[in-house]
Amino acid sequence: MEMHETFGLAHLWAQADLLIRGVAFVLVVMSVASWYLILVRSVRQFRARRHDRAVEAFWSAPNLQDGLARLSRLAPDSPFEALARQGVAAVEHVSQHTHRQTLGGTLDADEFVTRALRKSIALSTARLESGLTVLASIGSTAPFVGLFGTVWGIYHALVNISASGLATLDKVAGPVGEALIMTAFGLFVAIPAVLGYNAISRANRVELSELDAFAHDLHSWLSTGARLADQPATTAARPQAATAVPAQAAVQGAL
């Protein structure tokens, strides 16, 4: 009973030097940062479940402006809304500048829209992956930070035991056990960070695949006036010239 009353977290903190306390503070900061990122991204993923409904509402809209309004209402500030607006803005830009005697007048509308959609996807990917580097760094370094605290704590405990001249088991086990707590702290910080990183990365891959599919359908609609998914299989072999409509005309007709 006396052993349990003497040794523990309070005793470890009381006898710890500045380095051990610094390691403990770093682990606390890592833990707070990882849990903050995990909770924030979890809330975002929960809201992202409405994106499928927003995309379906966009395609069922009677015109382009109403579709964009539905995206803004159902999925505000989402990658899907940004992608749709970027694509429409690219088509409108081409339609306004292709008749001028400038370098823009020689731009290919399809290529310009493709690059605009790719830029939007790249920006959305960067936003989705923000914070993952921090989680990966915490998950990979926290165990070693805790291990460093353990090694230094054991060294500090052995020095004190050597100075006191008491090297019995009851005098060694307490300080060494306290030092090993730092390793447990490191694992306590690292495990949630690794699990959160894996879960967020998987959710990002799913969302980016859906965004890529939406971009493919949107590009087809802006280029031909119809979704590729809505095209019958028998029309796939028809010459492109028979069905292709300029992107400017498709958007202007929808407007």
From TrEMBL:
Transmembrane region(s): 20-40, 132-159, 179-200
GO BP term, example: protein import
Membrane topology: Multi-pass membrane protein
Annotated localization: Cell inner membrane; Membrane
Signal peptide as annotated in the record: none
Domain MotA/TolQ/ExbB proton channel: 108-211
Keywords for this protein: Cell inner membrane, Cell membrane, Membrane, Protein transport, Transmembrane, Transmembrane helix, Transport
Main localization of the protein described in the UniProt heading: membrane
Cellular component annotations (GO), alphabetically ordered: plasma membrane
Job of this protein: Involved in the TonB-dependent energy-dependent transport of various receptor-bound substrates. Protects ExbD from proteolytic degradation and functionally stabilizes TonB.
Quaternary structure annotation from Swiss-Prot or TrEMBL: The accessory proteins ExbB and ExbD seem to form a complex with TonB.
Family affiliation: Belongs to the exbB/tolQ family.
Name of the protein described by the UniProt record: Biopolymer transport protein ExbB
